[in-house]
């Protein structure tokens, strides 16, 4: 039966599947176009960390990586509902500060509307003359600018480096400007 589950696609399959590669590159390109990070300010992490220690600032460093899934994998090959989806994410479980200590973040979180609120909205929409709707923002995460006392720098994977970076850096980082998944 159709479970409508997005099937994870591993790196080896991505390498041999042009449609998966295109889906991942499309996501990288969208995030670049949105200005999620600033590649014009690429620096060596050791220099960023030394500067932060010297000036008494906090700098965080983490990795950005891509995930790929195939939506509609239960459908026959060639079906238009079967497609690859790329997502670029920040590896939040392994963020270091300028002293190479685990980064400490404020305890912040967001939760979707509770089940009770959802049911109340549904009930309201069932009343005569009432209408309810739902909306979702396009690339909602990246609509949030990163602010605060610490700067966050990210390592991009080698296959996303501009050619001008090759051979110039040991641990290159760029400032992350917008929130990522």
Write the layout of secondary structure elements.
Elements: E1 7-8, H1 11-15, H2 18-34, E2 43-44, H3 45-55, E3 58-71, E4 83-90, E5 96-97, H4 115-126, E6 150-155, E7 172-175
Parallel strand pairs: 3-6
Antiparallel strand pairs: 1-3, 2-7, 3-4, 3-5, 6-7
Describe, in plain words, how this protein is organized in 3D.
The chain has 181 residues and is α+β, with helices and mostly antiparallel strands. Helix content is 25%, strand content 21%. It is built from four helices and seven strands; from the N terminus they run βααβαβββαββ. The chain has helices at 11-15, 18-34, 45-55, 115-126; strands spanning 7-8, 43-44, 58-71, 83-90, 96-97, 150-155, 172-175. Strands 1, 2, 3, 4, 5, 6 and 7 form a seven-stranded mixed sheet that branches. The longest helix is centred in the first third of the chain and has 17 residues, at 18-34. The chain is flat, with a radius of gyration of 21 Å. The mean pLDDT is 87.
